[in-house]
Amino acid sequence: MIVQKLYHSIFMMLVGILSIVCFFSCQDKERERFSNLVHDWQGKEILFPDSLVFARFGTDTVDNILSPDAPYKILVYIDSLGCTTCKLQLDRWKEFIAYVDSATNDRIPFCFILPANRKKALSRILKSSKFEYPVCFDDEGRMDKLNQFPHEIKFQTLLLNKNNRVEVIGSPVYNLGVRDLYLEYLLKIPRQEMAAITELRPDRWEYDLGVVHKGTVREQLVSVQNIGTHSFHLKGITTSCDCTKAVCDWKELLPGETGIVTVAYTAEQPGDFFRTVEIFGNIGPESVELSFIGTVK
Predict the structure, then answer these.
(1) Which residues contact 156 (CB under 8 A, 6 or more apart)?
(2) Distances in Å between the alpha carbon of 266 and those of 13, 112, 130, 245?
(3) CA-to-CA distance for 157 and 76, rounded, in angstroms?
(4) Please, what is the average pLDDT of the chain?
(5) Residue 20 predicted with pLDDT over 50
(6) Per-residue pLDDT at 139
(7) Topology of the domain covering 200-296
(8) What architecture (CATH level 2) is domain 44-187?
(9) How do the domains of the chain map onto residue ranges?
């Protein structure tokens, strides 16, 4: 009996070690894939169709916003895959646009390309969110046919120079490090020197929220510990869609200290879901990314 328990303990320990090795191996592969993606898109020329129509709320047509005199432009492409409503992140975009407009005297155009097959629903969302910036509903998916954008929403936003070549690929509303990079280009604001690097470890990397009934909210407490030798300074937390919120009541964790992040998921559409939460701070060039899965019924 004792021998069986010993074998079982050894087996479970080996399974745990193998799981950790596989996790970090997958992380390395993802990191390499993203690195290659950034390399492939850096400096690439983005092609625009001859006639793109922009309109407020998708209905009130405006003049062409793509001024040839603008030193930069920000292209936001959103495809029809998955929950388009969740991917819009309109509140975050309104905040970022207002900041850039104020700092540049409205010199930087934002080019939002949305899927035409969801025009009716998205127009309602734009109005209810009071998102007054002009958008373009691309009837035949011409932009994607010309440029073949990445499928990951985090890489469907591009900072283009005057010649429509890519300077930065990545979304400033999903990744706070990318946001700093945008501002460095647009406003000539140097990125702040990062504090000494430390390491942040969550109690889990993936959380199964189980069955969540439509219209209800499921909360999950996430424990993160600073296992490094320097203090961790929280820069911010982002989520993969508006239906997921993450808050905490701390800004700094001393070495060995643990903090709690409260994640709240609002169930909207029936079916399986996968959401992510990213924690940013002085933990190197990347974030701590947490996954949340479950089923809405």
Answers:
(1) 76, 77, 78, 79, 149, 150, 171
(2) 36, 26, 21, 9
(3) 4
(4) 85
(5) no
(6) 82
(7) Immunoglobulin-like (2.60.40)
(8) 3-Layer(aba) Sandwich (3.40)
(9) 44-187, 200-296
- The tokens describing 120, both together, are 């009716």
The reported pLDDT for the residue numbered 287 is 84
Q: What is the DSSP letter of 153?
A: G
Q: What secondary structure letter does DSSP report for 28?
A: H
In this predicted model, what pLDDT tens digit does every residue of 147-202 receive, in sequence order?
Answer: 999 988 889 999 999 999 999 999 999 888 899 899 999 988 666 655 788 999 99
DSSP codes, 160-171: EETTSBEEEES-
Given a cut of 50, whether residue 23 has pLDDT beyond it is no
Dist CA 117 CA 222 (whole Å): 38
Point out which residues pair with 290 in neighbouring strands: 277
The amino acid occupying position 234 is L
- Rounded Cα–Cα distance for residues 295 and 210 (Å): 6
Residue corresponding to tokens 């209810």: 128
Non-local CB neighbours of 220 within 8 Å, separated by 6+ positions = 207, 209, 262, 263, 264, 265, 292
Mean pLDDT of 20-36: 58
Distances (CA, A) of 175 to 118, 182, 236, 238: 26, 11, 9, 7
Written as six digits, the tokens of 90 are: 């309109």
> In Å, how far are 29, 48, 277 from 286, measured between CA atoms?
14, 32, 13
| R_g of the chain, CA atoms, integer Å | 22
232-239 and 252-253 strand pairing: antiparallel
For residue range 256-293, list pLDDT tens digits in order: 999 999 999 999 889 999 999 999 999 876 789 999 99
